[in-house]
Structures are given as structure tokens and as C-alpha cells.
Model the fold of this input.
Amino acid sequence: MTPEDLGLDPPEDMARDLPIFRRDGLELRFGELTLFVVHFKAPYPDAARAWAVRRLEAEALARLVARAGPLWLVAGDLNEPGTASERAVAPLEALGENLMLRLPESERWTYFQPDERRYGAPDGLIASPMLAARLERVVPQVLRAGMGREAGPEGAERLPETGLHRPHASDHAGVVLDLGVVKR
Done:
């Protein structure tokens, strides 16, 4: 999908016929629920350029969720640094509720940068207002057992084969959301 396909203006120096989504961009439908799985542009090597690409990805996804009906969920790595004064993903966040914010702030981290000893929360679960209301008592669960042993408190539960940094299942924690209450 290109900016032209959705009537969007690409960032400066980006051709109109290049794909909007740099990584994953999957749309799945389960009955009334539409799930969008994404992996937005990482904030490097050029932070300003990456911000512009993430903004385009967020604007494009906002247009797609507008077509999806009242029950939708965006799940994935939004790659939004916690230090951003203006969030590139703001157009998308304005349409729904990020269910990750239901977790205590100290429990939201899903990523660890070992060389900087920095924790981050780039992963999001943005639910449509109707879905968020149906899930009013549901809180996401963060599973860190597949991350390297350097992430989190010493002695935290890890998969048996997980090493200090490698091997690991991922540099991101898994996030689980019980959608069993969606049927109404």
C-alpha cells in the first residue's frame, strides 16, 4: 500500500509509490473484530526522518481502522520513544484507547536496550472505543520469559534456554490480551 493509495502525502524525499509500512502490516478479521498487526519504523538511524515515516504509518493505519467498523484492535510495535514530545502515532492513538496504559507504569515495559540499560514501552494495543468498553475489566499481561536474562530483576522467570543476552526468543516481551469477552 502506497501513500497514493490512501490519498496521503509522503514525507519529504519519499516517493509516492514506495510502500507506507516498512515492516509488518497485517489485517485480519474474526467475525466483527478486525485486528491490525503492525511494526512501525524504528526511531533510528535518523530520528527525525524515522518520526516522519512513523507519522505516515499512523495516518495510514488511522484511515484503515476508520473503514474497519466499530470493533478493531491495533497490536504491535509502534516504536514510539517514550521521550517524544509530539508522538508520531498520535493520529492513531486519538481514535482509541491504548490498553497498555491500564498497566501500572512500572509494568508497561516490553523492551530492554542492554547497552544503554534502558527500558521502553514501544508496544501498543490500541482498541476502538467500543472494544475498549467491552474489555473494560481486561488488563494486558506482559510475558518476559523469552527475553534475555539481563532484562528485569535478577532471578525473574525465563525460559530454560535463555541466556544473559542471547539466545533469547525476542528483544520484546510478549503481550497477551484476553478477547474472550468480545462476543456480545
The CA atoms of residues 144 and 173 lie 5 Å apart. The first strand starts at residue 25 and ends at 30. The chain has a mean pLDDT of 92.
